[in-house]
């Protein structure tokens, strides 16, 4: 998607937010576009001696989204060079929590955390990435209560969102299982924050691993988050391994993506078992996911 179309799509999402209440589950309007399955992977999971080789493998297997770790500011030229002339694009930057600094009661730490996510957004913009994945805090990174954390997010996210939009990208709130954080475990919780902040630069993502532990209805979870949903992580069920290696179905979740007309990337974020050849296992996982996508009829 080019920059103008990107901003336009974000603003369409924001327009949908102008509802008087957080009736987020009622927004499952028919999608304007048919959903697409754009598969991808985190860089670290891809086999290859160089980034260029990894990208070539991903493209060969029909993948098109390259997810990078942290803020790869010093690698911008290398990344642009690796994807040049291919159908692969940068999906998201998997950035994280910055040790909880953005929601720290220590205002100096908070300021530094905000600067760091803005720096990551600069890189994301330069790479035309869909967004920067943000987790406010993992366990033991904050002693505050969820309501206090909500208030800090409401204070800081509008300014960060302005920066994101200026750079043509977004923040993506990632809900995590209760094994990893006490704060924002389900998509509807992230959606409620996005709705309240009501900013095109503040969006969310879904991760099948966390969802398999926390969501009772995967279709509905994606429908609820639909207006703000711009990235998906793929991992099989409760052990977080490559899709297709154990009997975990993606069909219900994919139905949700189809219902909201999902247009962004689905990226592998999982362990690759010792002894497994990723050059065999990843294309098999992609085949499995394409089959599951076909089975997800709505
Ligand atoms: Mg994830």
Describe what this molecule looks like in 3D.
- The chain has helices at 3-15, 51-60, 76-83, 107-126, 146-166, 187-197, 208-214, 218-225, 251-259, 278-295; strands at residues 38-42, 65-69, 89-96, 131-134, 171-173, 202-207, 229-234, 265-268.
- It has 298 residues and is α/β, with parallel strands linked by helices.
- It has one domain (34-295): Divalent-metal-dependent TIM barrel enzymes (TIM Barrel, Alpha-Beta Barrel), CATH 3.20.20.150.
- Strands 1-2-3-4-5-6-7-8 form an eight-stranded parallel β-barrel, surrounded by four helices.
- Strand 5 (171-173), helix 6 and strand 6 form a beta-alpha-beta unit.
- Bound molecules: magnesium ion.
- Magnesium ion binds at residues 174, 207, 233, 269.
Strand-helix topology:
Elements lengths: L2 H13 L22 E5 L8 H10 L4 E5 L6 H8 L5 E8 L10 H20 L4 E4 L11 H21 L4 E3 L13 H11 L4 E6 H7 L3 H8 L3 E6 L16 H9 L5 E4 L9 H18 L3
Parallel strand pairs: 1-2, 1-8, 2-3, 3-4, 4-5, 5-6, 6-7, 7-8
Helix pairs in contact: 2-3, 4-5, 6-8, 8-9
The chain binds magnesium ion.
Magnesium ion binds next to loops.
Please tag this protein with its features.
298 residues, alpha/beta, TIM Barrel, eight-stranded parallel β-barrel, 42% helix, globular, binds magnesium ion
Explain briefly what this protein structure is.
Helices cover 42% and strands 14% of the residues. The chain has 298 residues and is of the alpha/beta class. It has one domain: TIM Barrel, CATH 3.20.20.
């Amino acid at each position: 998607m080019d920059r103008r179309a990107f901003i336009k799509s974000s603003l369409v999402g924001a327009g949908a937010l102008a509802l008087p209440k957080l009736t987020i589950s009622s927004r499952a309007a028919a999608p304007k576009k048919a959903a697409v399955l754009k598969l991808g992977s985190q860089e670290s999971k891809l086999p290859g001696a160089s980034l260029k080789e990894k990208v070539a493998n991903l493209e060969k297997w029909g993948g098109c989204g390259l997810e990078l770790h942290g803020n790869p500011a010093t690698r911008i030229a290398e990344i642009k060079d690796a994807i040049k002339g291919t159908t692969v694009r940068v999906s998201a930057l998997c950035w994280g929590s910055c040790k909880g600094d953005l929601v720290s009661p220590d205002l100096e730490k908070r300021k530094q955390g905000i600067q760091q996510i803005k720096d990551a957004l600069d890189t994301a913009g330069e790479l035309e990435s869909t967004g920067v994945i943000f987790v406010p805090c993992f366990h033991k990174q904050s002693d505050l209560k969820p309501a206090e954390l909500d208030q800090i997010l409401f204070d800081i996210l509008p300014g960060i969102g302005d920066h994101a939009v200026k750079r043509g990208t977004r923040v993506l709130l990632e809900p995590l299982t209760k094994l990893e954080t006490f704060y924002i475990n389900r998509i509807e919780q992230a959606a409620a924050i996005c709705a309240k902040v009501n900013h095109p630069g503040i969006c969310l993502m879904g991760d099948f691993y966390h969802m398999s532990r926390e969501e009772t209805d995967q279709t509905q979870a994606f429908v609820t988050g639909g207006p703000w949903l711009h990235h998906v992580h793929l991992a099989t069920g409760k052990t977080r391994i490559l899709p297709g290696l154990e009997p975990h179905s993606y069909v219900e979740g994919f139905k949700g993506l189809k219902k909201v007309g999902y247009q962004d990337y689905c990226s592998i974020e999982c362990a690759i078992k010792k002894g497994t050849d990723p050059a065999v296992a990843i294309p098999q996982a992609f085949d499995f996911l394409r089959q599951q996508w076909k089975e997800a009829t709505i």
